[in-house]
Amino acid sequence: MSEVNLAQALNGALDTALEADDRVILLGEDIGRTGGVFRITDGLRDKHGEDRVVDTPVAESGIVGAAFGMAIAGLRPVAEIQFLGFSYPAYDQIISHVARIRNRSNHRFTAPLVIRVPFGGGIGAAEHHSESTESIYAHIPGLKVVVPSTPSDARGLLLAAIEDPDPVLFLEPIRLYRAVREEVPDLYFTAEIGPVRVEREGNDVTLISWGAMIKETRAAASALEETGRSVEVLDVRTLSPLDHDGIVASARKTGRVVVVHEAPRHAGLGAEIAAVIQEHALYSLLAPVKRVAGWDTVFPLKRSEGHYLPSVDRIVAAAEETLEA
Amino acid sequence: MEREFRLPDIGEGLTEAEIVRWLVPEGGRVEADQPVVEVETDKAVVEIPSPYGGTVLRHGGAEGETITVGSVLVVIGDESGEQKAPSPHPGPVGAAAPIVGTLSEEAEVLGARDEREAAVADTIKALPIVRKLARDLGVDLTTIEGTGADGRVTREDVLAAVQPETPEIAAVPEVVVVPEPVPAPDTASTEAPAGSPAPAAGEGERRPMTRLRRTIAANMARSWAEIPHVTTFDDVDATRLLEIRSALGERHQVKLPMEALVVKAVIPALQAFPEFNATVEGDDLVVHGRFHVGIAVDAPEGLLVAVMRDADRLGVIELAAEVRRLGDGAKARTLGPDELTGQTFTVSNIGAVGGGHGTPIIPYGTTAILSVGRAREKVVAVDGDLDIVPMMPLSLSYDHRVIDGAQGRRFMALVIENLEEPALFLAG
Amino acid sequence: MFSLINADGTVRDRLPITMEEMRGLYADMVEARTYDHKCMSMQRQGRLATYAPFEGQEAAQIGAAAALMPDDWVAATYRDAALMWRAGYPWRLLIAGRTGDERGGQAPEGVNVLPPSITVGGHMIHAVGLGWAEMLKGTDRVALTSFGDGATSEGDFHEAMNFAAVFHTPTVFLCQNNGFAISLPRSEQTISESIAIKADGYGMPGVQVDGNDVAAVLTVVREALETARSGGGPSLIEAITYRIGPHTTADDPTRYRDEGEAGEWQERDPLTRVRALLERAGGWSQEWQEEIEAAATRRVEEAVAEAEALPPPTAEEMFTRMYDEPTAPLRAQMGEAGR
Q1: Which of B163-177, B187-201, B355-369, B400-414 is the least confident region?
Q2: Looking at residue B109, what is its pLDDT?
C-alpha cells in the first residue's frame, strides 16, 4: 500500500501487468526511452526490455493496427496514443477492424487489446492536445470505453481492461494525472468495468460526471452541501457500456439530475444519459435533467480555457436551478 | 412443371431494369446458369443466367420493356409433365433472395404536408411526475390552479385537489385490512408498476390488469403519493453472515433463507427504534407492540407480502421454516388473509433474483422497508490491506414524515452491526 | 519481371515444380474459376449480395496460397476468395459470407485466415501485428497479406510497410496489381515506375512477378515466406495481373476501359498457358479436364447447397456476437428486438 497519484497508479498497473502476463506488450510513440509524453511508462522499458515496451514510428493507425494483429494472434497489447486529438488517424482501425472482428468472424477471432489515450484540457496545452471527444468512441459498437478518475480506479480498471476479452479504449484524464493522490494497494486487483462509482451519497440532487470534471463536480457538491443540500455524486467510470441501472437508481432516488462533462454539449454523452433517465425514471423526476458541458466550440487555446471548461460555479448554479424547479 | 424466375436486384438497391435482348426465345431450351436475357439497369448492361434448366415457356416482357424488381422475368418449364401452379417465390430465388423480399416495388411518393392545425398547445405547467399522479388519482389538471413557480401545478396541489372531492379515496386505508393480498414493493429495475403510460389508440394493445395487479397498482400509487420516501443505501460485509448461514444450514440440514437471518437481525433494531415499527394515522403515530414482519414473496400473479406474525418470538430455524411455508403457500395461493396482511415492517430480499441496491416503496400502513440485495465479492480495503469480501447491498426506505435522517442512519447502523456479527442477534 | 511460363505454355527456365504439383495447381485454378462463375451467376439470380469476381487472377491467388504452411496467417480482401480457399477457407463459408451472413466470416479452427477486409488497405498492418506476435512468441509462422494496386495509395500501406521493416516482422506483402482500382488505372494510381520498387524506400526487398504465371508466383512467394520464416524480415511482391470481370456485380467496366484490353489479357489467361504446358508434357487429356471440371462443379454446388441451407440467423446472434458476454444495455435491447 502506498500513496500514489493517478499517473503513478497507471505506471504501477502497467508494471504489474507486464510482470504478471507474458502476453502483455506495450507499444506507442516515445513510451520506451522517455517513458511517454506523460511519463506513464517511465522505467518500464529498462525493467521489461525493449521487446515488451516498444517505441514505434509516429503512426497512430499503424500502432493500433499492429496491436490489433497481435491481439488476434494471442498477445495482450496495450497501445498508447499520445493525445486523444491525435487518435483520429487510428479511428478507422478502431471502428472498422478492432471493434468488429468478433462480429465479422462470429467469435472466431477476437481483439483483446487496450488503447490508452490521455484526454481533456485545462493544462494549457497546444492545439489538438485538449480534446474530449469520448462520445465519438462511446458510439462505436463492440468497443468498451473506460475513464478512471481516482488512482485506485486507474489501477483496478487498467488491469481489468487488460484482462478483458474485448477491446477497451482507456481514457486517462490528463488534468488529474498528478492532481489526485490516494492510498493504492500494490496488489494485483481489478475494478469492474461497467458500474458507476457512487462518489458520495445524497438525497436532494444527483451530479453525474467522469474523468477530470469529477474534480469540479466534487467541489460543487461540497459547496451545495454547505447550504444544507444533500448531494449524490456519480462517477461514470465506464462510458460504454453505460451503467443504466446505477444512473437510473440515483435519478429515482433524488429526482434531480445534473450531468457534467467537458466535451461539447451537442451529441455529448450527457444527452444519452438524460435520455436513459427520461426513459426509465421520468415519473421520479422533480425537475428537468440539466447538462453542464463544454460549449459547441473548438476547444480553445490556453488563454480562453477558462471560458470553456465547466466551472464549479456553473455546476452549482445548474444544481440550484434544478433544486428550485 | 413451371417455375417463375423473378427479376432480382442485381445492383445495389436497383428497382427496375430494361429488357435489352432475349438470349433464349420462348420455346427454347436453357441450362441452369446459362444466360437467358440481357438487361440494362441504372448501372450496367448485364446478362442474367437462369437458375433452372428447362424450356423457356414465357418471357416476362418484350425487348425494350422495363420491368420492376420482383416481377416475373421468365417462366421455365421442365420435362416432368406436371402442371403445377407457379409458385410465387420459386426454389432458390425465394429461399435466398434477401433483397427481392424487402425492396418495395414502387418508390414511395412523399405526401403533401399535413395542413391540419397542430393540436392546441398544452398550457398546463406540471412535471411528468405530477401529471402521472393526477392521472392515477383521476384529477383533471385543467381544474387546478398551480401554486408553484410560474403557476406550475405541484404535487401538493394535486393531493389537495383530491382530498375533499373524492372521499372514497381518502377512506382507502381500510384496504390494508381487507383480506386482499397486499403487494410487496416493486424493487426491480423497471418503473413502478403503474408507471408506463397507456398506449395510444391504434398502437400496441390494451390489457385489463388482473385484480391483484390493480390492487398492487392502487397501493403503490398511494404509498408513493402520500409517503415522502427517503432511501439510504449501504453495503454490509456478509462474510460472517454467510459463514453462519452455512454452518447453521449444515447443522440443521436445511438451506437457510436469507430472510430468516435478516429478519432476526432487524428485530433488535425495530425494538430500539419503535418508529420503524409503526403506522401513521392522521396526526398520530401508532407504535406497534408486536413485531409482524412481512417478507416479499414472488408468486406467479405478482409480488406478495406474506407476514410472519410475532417474528420476535421465533428462533432462526423457526423463521426459516416459516419463510419456506409462506413461500410455498403464496405460490399455491393457500395463504389466509391473516398471513397476507398486517405487517408492521417489511423485508424484501431482491438478492434472490440477483438484485443489488433499489429504492423500495414502503407498503401503505407501515413506515419503513428494508431491501436486501445479493452479496457479491468486492475488493475492499480492510485495515490497510485489500481483501475480497462478499458485500451485501442494503437499501432502507423510510417515511420522512416521522423518521429523520439521523434516526434512519442509526437504525441502519444497528442492522449493519448485527449482520456483520450475527452472534450479536443470535445470542439475544 | 520474374516469370517461368510464357503465355503460350513454353517455359523460360527449369520449373522448380513437379508435374504432379503442376497438375494440382491447374486443377485448383479450374475449381476457383468454377466458383467465380457460379457466384457471378448466383448474384444475377438474386441469391448473393454484391460479388467481386477474381477471374484472371487465379494464378496470383492459387500460386501464393500454395506457398503457405498450414498455420500461417492470411489477411486478404474481398477479391481473394481463391487465395483464401487454397489456404483452407471452405467455399461454403465464402458463399455464406456473400449471401450476407456473418457466420461466413468464421474460419474453421486451425485455419488462420481472417475474414476478408472490405475497407481498402486497413488489413495490411494486421499482418504486421500477426507476424510480430508470432515472432515474439517464438513460432515460425508467417503472415501473408494480399491487396490490390489501389490499396498502395492508402496511408495504411505506408504504415504497414514501414512497421514491418522497422520491426523486421515475418510479413509478406502481396500486391495483385490487376490494372484498376474500380475505374482508376494503375498509371494514375501512382506514377512510380512500379509498385515493387516502393519496397526500396522502406528498406525491404521488392520483386515484380508475372501474376498470371502460377509457377512464378508460387516460386517468388515461397522464397519470400521462407526468408520471413527464417528471420530475414518482410518483403513486397507485385504480381502483375488483370481483372477480366467488373470490379463488382454493381459495376460496368465499359465506362472506363476498352473491351479490347480485356481481350488481350484473355490471351494471357493463367489457365490456358498451364494447360498448354501440361499438354505438351503429356500431363493433360480431355478426359482428365472433364474429370476435374466435374469434380470442381460438384464441390462448388455442394458448397452452395450447404450455404443456402444455413438456417436464418436469429436476432439474438446479432447481439451475442458483439462481446464475449453481452453488455447490460445490449441484453436490454435484445429483449426489445425479440418483442
Answers
A1: B163-177
A2: 63
- The one-letter amino acid at B252: H
The helix/strand/coil state of A231 is strand
Tell me how many helices (H) and strands (E) chain A has.
12, 14
Residue-wise pLDDT tens digits, B93-147: 333 333 222 344 455 666 555 544 444 445 688 888 888 888 888 888 888 888 8
- What DSSP state is assigned to residue C77? B
What number is the ipTM of this complex? 0.94
Looking at residue A94, what DSSP letter applies? I
Of B9, B43, B50, the CB nearest to C46: B9
Cis before A241 (ω within 30): yes
The mean pLDDT value for B203-231 works out to: 81
- The answer to whether the Cβ–Cβ distance between C41 and B49 falls below 8 Å is yes
How far B356 CA sits from the closest chain C CA (Å)? Answer: 14
CA distance B306 to B259: 12
Confidence band (pLDDT; 50, 70, 90) for B80? Answer: low
Please give the Cα distance from B250 to B199 (Å, whole number).
Answer: 52
Q: Could B11 and C44 be called an inter-chain contact, meaning their C-beta atoms sit closer than 8 Å?
A: no
Beta bridge partners of A181: A5
d(CA A112, CA A269): 25
Q: Is the dihedral of CA B7, B9, B15, B21 positive or negative?
A: negative
Do β-strands A144-146 and A238-240 pair in parallel, antiparallel, or remain unpaired? antiparallel
C-alpha triplet C231, C237, C239: angle, nearest 5°? 155
Interval B400-426 mean pLDDT: 90
User: Which of A1, A248, A253 is opposite residue B231, by nearest beta carbon?
Assistant: A253
Distance CA B130, CA B112 (A): 38
CB-CB contact of B316 with B248 (8 Å): yes
Report the alpha-carbon distance of residue A129 to residue A186 in Å, rounded. 31
What is the pLDDT, as a whole number, of residue B220? 84
Mean pLDDT of chain B: 78
Do A66 and C129 lie within an 8 Å CB cutoff? yes
Interface test with C, best of B15, B46, B68, B203 (most C CBs within 10 A): B46
Q: What is the pLDDT of residues A167-216, one digit of tens each?
A: 999 999 999 999 999 999 999 999 999 999 999 999 999 999 999 999 99
Tell me whether C179 touches chain B (CB under 8 Å): no
pTM (global) more than 0.80: no
- Active-site annotation holds for C243: yes
pLDDT confidence tier of residue A322, bands split at 50, 70 and 90: very high
Taking the C-alpha atoms of residue B314 and residue B308, their distance in angstroms, rounded to an integer, is: 9
- Give the B:C interface size as CB pairs under 8 Å: 60
Q: Which is it for strands A76-80 and A24-28: parallel, antiparallel or unpaired?
A: parallel
Which residues in chain B are closer than 8 Å to A198, comparing Cβ atoms? 233
Check whether A233 has a pLDDT greater than 80: yes
Which is it for the CA torsion B250, B252, B256, B261, positive or negative? negative
Best CA proximity match to A48, nearest among A9, A74, A22: A22
